[in-house]
């Protein structure tokens, strides 16, 4: 067995697409531009990044669904391009959303088909399938057709499918999307258990808390390259020397946000909508107290609770991603 | 694995409301078509032959739309990626799908004959019932293998539907499912001889009407089909790689 479960060096992928028929226009998207990473056996590794960063593409390069434009990768010591079948035997792939299953078949038939495809021996199939239904808590609904399943149930069935052949490396692409909080917690527990029993997991998610809780190491990917890599604690250092001010507000305009952004000492400012209210988050240098200035800028806006706190992983993530945006879109950064 | 796969795909296919509706209506239309074509020709004695031909057309449509449509559907469902990810030769993964479509197509054959009997009183007296019972499944398996060759192109093309539609009628005609081959222009001859559908159709017709020995035709049909299978398997492996390079396994 190889020392690392996943090794990637200089991985690149360009999508070429043609639109138009009479006068075809070629369009090229550089989705992944040079990713290097190694994941150890039994490690739970997180891949974070904004939409379109190249997370899914990276996963598909590693799980043999796509062939890299350049660079190479190994899974369990096998080359993903040349030793495809060896790699496929050892990996499981689960993606978020409700596609990827045969809707008009029962859950059991779905699993039976994939057990057959993955060469799970006939004698073992029944036991394994029952075991997995137990694990993902679908016992009792096995014979229902998947079209009658809820989003979360489909997601759980997906996970059961991914585990049928006891893969040693599991790729999870946003597995908790559309799953309710209780089920998401169970899901995290399942993933943690798998990792504890030696399965290597590569996980992408948009939920920082999930990544923080589960992952031993995290890579933040943006614009097709890894921007930061480390343990959650290490990543939090990217927000070192900063503090966060959160203001609940009703009716903050773009002009005011821009003004806050321009205040001395302010590093990031963003507004997220939370129900009827807006949540204004301001990251500033720890030494500078910006609260008074921020509140002065917001004069005339109805305000709710104001809290100052230490930065979280999410703040560090925002800092990393915004730094990339500032580099690649200098014009907008000045305007904003 | 192939058996379980074909069975489950048949299940999945036969439960689609669209398929069910098509399967109910099409055989009636085909039986009617066959009857009127031959009545007009003033050859009522060949009604059975016509009905069998119409049934074969149904099987072929099913295989064609099946191997094209099923691959396309799986792309939409997101299952194409999942099955291609299995540690199996890609041909082995796709073959059950085309076999399943041929199986659902068998139903079209049976239904066309049944409606023909029911609505138009076509006598179902087969010259060689045993040969007929063997020729039909043989022909269907042959078509399934031919479907694999077709399917390999569909895996690559993200827009497979256009091709499916253009292939349906020419093959009906050229393989003599409806009109005897002798009635077609000479240049279609070589094409017809290379298509397993021609030989399958011939075997089934011979079994139904006793117009010739069944086994040679069926043998040729299966031989060509096996060649298709081999070619399809090679194509499939090649195509799977191309699809991974061109990113056509998924929709987006
Ligand atoms: N099949 C494809 N053809 C063309 N471009 C594609 C294709 N798949 C992805 N892309 C492009 O590649 C880039 C990276 O996409 P990718 O799906 O890897 O992002 P992601 O990080 O998974 O995003 P998300 O968080 O939204 O899932 C995007 O710009 C996307 O538009
Ligand atoms: Mg993605």
From TrEMBL, chain A:
Pfam families: ABC_tran. Residues 11-248 form the ABC transporter domain. This is Multidrug ABC transporter ATP-binding protein. GO terms for biological process: response to antibiotic. InterPro entries: AAA+_ATPase, ABC_transporter-like_ATP-bd, ABC_transporter_ATP-binding, P-loop_NTPase. Keywords: Antibiotic resistance, ATP-binding, Nucleotide-binding, Transport. GO terms for molecular function: ATP binding; ATP hydrolysis activity. Transmembrane segments: none annotated. GO terms for cellular component: plasma membrane.
TrEMBL record, chain B:
It is a multi-pass membrane protein. Its main location: membrane. It is found in: Membrane. Keywords: Membrane, Transmembrane, Transmembrane helix. GO terms for molecular function: ABC-type transporter activity. GO terms for cellular component: membrane. The chain crosses the membrane at residues 20-38, 50-71, 92-118, 130-157, 169-194, 214-234. It comes from the Bacteria. Residues 11-206 form the ABC-2 type transporter transmembrane domain. It holds the Pfam family ABC2_membrane. This is ABC-2 type transporter transmembrane domain-containing protein.
């Amino acid at each position: 067995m190889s020392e690392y479960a996943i090794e990637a060096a200089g991985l690149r992928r360009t999508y070429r697409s043609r639109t138009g028929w009479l006068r075809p226009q070629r369009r090229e998207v550089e989705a992944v531009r040079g990713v290097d990473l190694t994941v150890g056996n039994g490690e739970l590794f997180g891949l974070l990044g904004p939409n379109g960063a190249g997370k899914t593409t990276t996963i598909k390069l590693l799980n043999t669904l796509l062939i890299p434009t350049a660079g190479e990768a190994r899974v369990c010591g096998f080359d993903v391009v040349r030793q495809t079948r060896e790699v496929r035997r050892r990996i499981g792939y689960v993606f978020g959303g409700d596609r990827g299953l045969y809707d008009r078949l029962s859950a059991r038939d779905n699993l039976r088909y994939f057990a057959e495809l993955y060469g799970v021996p006939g004698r073992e199939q029944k036991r394994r399938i029952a075991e997995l239904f137990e694990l993902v808590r679908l016992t009792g609904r096995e014979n229902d057709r998947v079209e009658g399943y809820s989003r979360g149930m489909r997601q759980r069935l997906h996970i059961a499918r991914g585990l049928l052949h006891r893969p040693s490396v599991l790729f999870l692409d946003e597995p908790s999307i559309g799953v309710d909080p209780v089920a998401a917690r169970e899901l995290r527990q399942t993933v943690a258990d798998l990792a504890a029993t030696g399965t290597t997991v590569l996980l992408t998610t948009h939920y920082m808390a999930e990544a923080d809780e589960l992952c031993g190491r995290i890579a933040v990917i943006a614009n097709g390259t890894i921007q930061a890599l480390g343990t959650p604690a290490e990543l939090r250092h990217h927000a070192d020397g900063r503090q966060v001010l959160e203001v609940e507000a009703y009716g903050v305009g773009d002009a005011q946000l821009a003004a806050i952004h321009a205040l001395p000492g302010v590093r990031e400012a963003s507004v997220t909508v939370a129900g009827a209210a807006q949540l204004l988050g301001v990251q500033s240098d720890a030494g500078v107290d910006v609260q008074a200035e921020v509140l002065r800028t917001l004069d005339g806006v109805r305000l709710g609770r104001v809290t100052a706190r230490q930065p979280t992983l999410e703040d560090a993530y925002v800092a990393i991603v915004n730094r990339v945006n500032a580099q690649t879109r200098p014009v907008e950064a000045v305007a904003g | 694995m192939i058996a379980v796969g074909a069975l489950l795909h048949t299940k999945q296919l036969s439960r689609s409301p669209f398929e069910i509706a098509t399967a109910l209506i099409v055989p009636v239309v085909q039986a009617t078509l066959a009857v009127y074509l031959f009545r007009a020709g003033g050859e009522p004695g060949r009604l059975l032959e016509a009905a069998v031909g119409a049934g074969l057309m149904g099987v072929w449509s099913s295989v064609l739309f099946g191997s094209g449509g099923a691959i396309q559907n799986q792309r939409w469902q997101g299952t194409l990626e999942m099955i291609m990810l299995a540690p199996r030769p890609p041909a082995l993964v796709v073959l059950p799908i085309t076999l399943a479509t041929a199986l659902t197509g068998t139903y079209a054959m049976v239904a066309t004959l049944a409606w023909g009997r029911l609505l138009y009183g076509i006598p179902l007296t087969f010259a060689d019932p045993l040969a007929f019972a063997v020729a039909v499944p043989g022909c269907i398996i042959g078509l399934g293998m031919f479907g694999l060759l077709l399917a390999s192109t569909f895996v690559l093309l993200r827009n497979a539907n256009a091709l499916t539609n253009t292939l349906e009628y020419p093959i009906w005609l050229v393989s003599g499912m409806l009109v005897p081959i002798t009635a077609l222009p000479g240049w279609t001859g070589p094409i017809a001889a290379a298509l397993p559908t021609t030989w399958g159709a011939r075997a089934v017709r011979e079994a139904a009407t006793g117009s010739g020995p069944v086994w040679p035709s069926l043998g040729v049909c299966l031989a060509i089909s096996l060649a298709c299978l081999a070619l399809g398997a090679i194509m499939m492996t090649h195509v799977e790689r191309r699809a991974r390079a061109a990113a056509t396994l998924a929709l987006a």
